[in-house]
Amino acid sequence: MDGRDWNKFLLPYQQAVEELKIKYKGLRTELKARDEYAPIEFVTGRVKKISSILEKAKRLSVPLDQIETGIEDIAGIRIMCQFVEDIHRVADLVRMRKDMKVVYEKDYITHYKDSGYRSYHIIVEYPIQTSIGSMPVLAEIQIRTLAMNFWATIEHSLNYKYKEKLPEDVKERLFRAAEAAAKLDEEMSKIRQEIVDAQQDFEGKSGIVRKV
Ligand code: 0O2
């Protein structure tokens, strides 16, 4: 590791992740309070590990003094949705916000990765307020369905176990599992209204009513 004070370096990213998590969890709460269907199921976030930042900088040939601009996912939040349609609704909600600026988007759903990975990524510039003024921080918002998240979580841990050198048969099975997850999402979309109505009835019984 170089002589950089990493704890200090990561502070703005930690602040951005905490604030972004609160904002998107708040959006879910607000939509529900308005009796509207909330396309957000749950939100998580993380700051990239230092080892992972250094590995990515090396892989992308980003000089260490340029990692703030060269690595866009040091701060990352993940928004999980029930249905693929909800992903597009959430992306619209991100685009219309005035407290962050969309830098660019990566559609790994239409153009899924060779691994089978599917997700919608939006890179935003989010200004945090510090004691010395406003500071723009790049953050990656990953939007995915529960099925996509299930697959990505498992694939990520397997890659970690095999140190990115997955045996061919495991790779093939994972790819087929990703196709199956996509098929599951497709089937669920076909009965989306049925499911949403059932959830509305269920929540209505416990005193909460929501509209789609
Ligand atoms: P973490 O949380 O740091 O351990 P890449 O070259 O893949 O790093 P790319 O393709 O430009 O970069 O993707 P991007 O938008 O930078 O996003 C990288 C992140 O997307 C990864 O972070 C994962 O969270 C997710 N991701 C991308 N491809 C895959 C994949 O094939 N499988 C899984 N499970 N996740 C993927 P890190 O660095 O892996 O995670």
TrEMBL record:
Keyword Cell inner membrane attached: no
Q: Which GO terms describe its molecular function?
A: ATP binding; GTP diphosphokinase activity; kinase activity
Q: Tell me the domain of life.
A: Bacteria
Q: Which keywords label this protein?
A: ATP-binding, Coiled coil, Kinase, Nucleotide-binding, Transferase
Protein EC: 2.7.6.5
Q: Which residue spans adopt a coiled-coil conformation according to this UniProt entry?
A: 174-201
Question: Taking every annotated instance into account, which residue ranges of this chain make up the domain RelA/SpoT?
Answer: 45-166
For this chain's UniProt record, which GO biological process terms are given? guanosine tetraphosphate biosynthetic process
Q: In which pathway does it act?
A: Purine metabolism; ppGpp biosynthesis; ppGpp from GTP: step 1/2
User: Oligomeric state and partners?
Assistant: Homotetramer.
The UniProt family comment states:
Belongs to the RelA/SpoT family.
Protein's name according to its UniProt entry: GTP diphosphokinase
Q: Which organism is it from?
A: Cohnella fermenti
Tell which residues of the whole protein are contained here: 1 to 212 of 267
